[in-house]
C-alpha cells in the first residue's frame, strides 16, 4: 500500500494550465491579426506631363474631351466649363450630382451617411461608365486621330473621394486609359498668382 | 508555531512559474509580430472599394504613401503633414511642397547615380472614402508642380462582388 502511494507521487498529473494559457494567447493573436488581413489594392493612373505647369506653352493642345462632372451640394452646374468664382464655403457633400458631358446620370450619396445607398451608387457608376464608353468611342483625339479624346474627371472640391474612385474604376473596366483629373480653381489662387510659396523657380 | 512556518514554506515552493513565463513569451512574440505587420506607413482608413484594384503588397520601400483622412488631414509615415484650414481657399502646404521638392532633387541625383527604383518614383495616395476630393487634388497638383511626378497610384479596397 505504501509502495503504491509512492509511485503515484512520482508520476504527477500533467498540468493543463500552461497549455490553456498558450492556447488562449494564440487565439487572441489570431483574432487580432485577422484584422490586418484586409485586401488592399491600388489603381494606377497617370498625371499630366505638360499640364498644370504653364498651359500657354502647350504647343498642340487637346481640343476634344469627355468631361465627367460630379457636383456637390445640390449644384448641377448646368453651365459647363464655367467654374468661374468658386465658393469660399464648403458645400454639403452628402449628395452629389453626376453628369457625363450634358447628360445627368443621377444623384450619388455619401455612403458614410447613407450606407443603404451603396448599390445605388454602383448602378450610377455603371450607367455613367456606359455613357462614357459610348462617347469615348465616338470622340477621336485632335492630337492623334488614332487615339481617343481623354476622359476628364471634374469633381467639386467637396466631392467624396469614393465617387472619384468609382468613376476611375468604371473607366478601368471599360479599358479607358487616358484619364485625367481637372484642376481645382481654389488652388489656382495660390499657384496662379505671384504670391506663391517659396518655390518661385519653375519646375522642370 | 514552528509547525505553521513549515507549511508556509512548502506553499511558496509549490508556486508554478511556468504559466507566467509562457504568457510573457507569448506576449513578447505577439508584440514583435504585430510591430512588424502594422505597416507604419498605412494609417487606418476606410478606403473606397473598386473591383479593378490591383493587389499591392507594400514591399517597395521607396514608395511615398500619402494618407488622407476624412477630415482632410494628410499623414505620411504616421506624421501629420497637412491640416486643412477653416477657410478652404486659404491654405498652407509648405511641408508637402518641401517634401516633393526634396524628392525631386533626390530623383535628379539618382538618375545620375542610377538607382532605377527612385527614377520610377512611385507615389500612392490613400484617401478615406468620404474625404473631400480637393485634398487629393492638392496632392496631385503639388506632386506635379513640385515633384515632377507623372505616375500615381490611388488606394482602394478590392471589391469582392462585381
List the helices and strands and how they pair.
The complex is a heterodimer of chains A (204) and B (162).
Chain A lengths: L1 H9 L6 H18 L5 E7 L19 E7 L22 E6 L2 E7 L8 H21 L12 E5 L5 H13 L5 E3 L3 H8 L12
Parallel strand pairs in A: 2-5, 5-6
Antiparallel strand pairs in A: 2-3, 3-4
Chain B lengths: L1 H12 L4 H20 L11 E2 L3 E2 L8 E5 L5 E3 L2 E4 L11 H20 L2 H5 L2 E5 L5 H15 L3 E8 L4
Parallel strand pairs in B: 1-7, 3-6, 6-7
Antiparallel strand pairs in B: 3-4, 4-5
Helix pairs in contact in B: 3-5
Number of helices of chain B: 5
Number of helices of chain A: 5
* CATH structural fold name of the largest domain in chain A: Nucleotidyltransferase, domain 5
Major sheet size, sense and barrel closure of chain B: 6 strands, mixed
Q: Strand pairing plus helix content of chain A: what structural class? A: alpha/beta
Please report the total strand number of chain A as a whole number.
6
Classify the helix fraction of chain B into a percent range. 40-55%
Q: Could you say which structural class the secondary elements and strand pairing of chain B correspond to?
A: alpha/beta
Radius of gyration of chain B from CA coordinates: 25 Å
Proportion of beta-strand residues of chain A: 15-25%
Low-confidence spans of chain A: pLDDT under 50, at least 5 residues?
50-57, 79-85, 193-204
β-strand percent of chain B reads 15-25%
Supply Rg of chain A: 29 Å
Give the domain tally of chain B.
Answer: 2
Name the largest protein-protein interface in this structure. A-B, 65 and 65 residues
Biggest beta sheet summary of chain A: 5 strands, mixed
Ends distance of chain B = 80 Å
Amino acid at each position: 500500500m505504501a509502495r503504491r502511494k509512492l509511485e503515484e507521487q512520482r508520476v504527477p498529473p500533467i498540468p493543463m494550465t500552461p497549455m490553456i494559457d498558450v492556447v488562449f494567447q494564440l487565439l487572441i493573436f489570431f483574432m487580432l491579426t485577422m484584422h490586418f488581413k484586409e485586401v488592399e489594392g491600388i489603381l494606377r493612373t497617370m498625371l499630366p506631363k505638360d499640364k498644370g505647369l504653364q498651359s500657354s506653352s502647350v504647343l498642340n493642345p487637346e481640343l476634344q474631351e469627355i468631361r465627367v462632372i460630379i457636383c456637390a451640394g445640390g449644384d448641377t452646374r448646368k453651365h459647363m466649363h464655367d467654374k468661374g468664382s468658386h465658393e469660399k464655403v464648403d458645400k454639403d457633400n452628402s449628395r452629389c450630382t453626376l453628369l457625363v458631358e450634358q447628360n445627368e446620370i443621377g444623384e450619388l450619396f455619401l455612403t458614410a451617411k447613407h450606407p443603404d445607398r451603396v448599390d445605388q451608387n454602383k448602378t450610377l457608376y455603371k450607367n455613367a461608365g456606359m455613357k462614357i464608353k459610348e462617347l469615348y468611342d465616338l470622340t477621336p483625339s485632335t492630337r492623334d486621330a488614332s487615339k481617343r479624346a481623354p476622359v476628364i474627371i471634374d469633381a467639386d472640391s467637396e466631392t467624396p473621394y469614393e465617387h472619384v474612385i468609382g468613376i476611375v474604376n468604371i473607366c478601368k473596366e471599360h479599358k479607358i486609359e487616358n484619364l485625367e483629373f481637372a484642376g481645382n480653381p481654389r488652388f489656382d489662387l495660390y499657384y496662379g498668382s505671384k504670391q506663391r510659396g517659396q518655390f518661385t523657380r519653375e519646375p522642370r | 508555531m514552528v509547525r505553521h512556518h513549515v507549511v508556509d514554506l512548502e506553499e511558496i515552493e509549490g508556486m508554478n512559474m511556468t504559466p507566467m513565463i509562457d504568457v510573457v513569451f507569448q506576449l513578447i512574440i505577439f508584440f514583435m509580430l504585430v510591430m512588424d505587420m502594422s505597416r507604419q506607413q498605412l494609417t487606418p482608413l476606410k478606403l473606397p472599394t473598386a473591383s479593378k484594384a490591383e493587389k499591392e503588397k507594400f514591399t517597395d520601400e521607396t514608395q511615398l504613401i500619402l494618407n488622407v483622412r476624412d477630415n482632410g488631414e494628410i499623414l505620411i509615415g504616421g506624421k501629420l503633414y497637412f491640416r486643412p484650414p477653416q477657410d478652404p481657399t486659404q491654405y498652407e502646404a509648405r511641408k508637402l511642397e518641401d517634401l516633393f521638392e526634396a524628392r525631386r532633387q533626390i530623383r535628379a541625383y539618382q538618375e545620375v547615380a542610377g538607382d532605377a527604383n527612385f527614377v520610377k518614383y512611385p507615389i500612392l495616395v490613400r484617401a478615406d472614402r468620404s474625404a473631400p476630393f480637393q485634398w487629393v487634388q492638392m496632392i496631385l497638383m503639388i506632386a506635379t508642380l513640385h515633384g515632377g511626378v507623372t505616375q500615381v497610384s490611388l488606394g482602394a479596397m478590392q471589391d469582392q462582388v462585381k
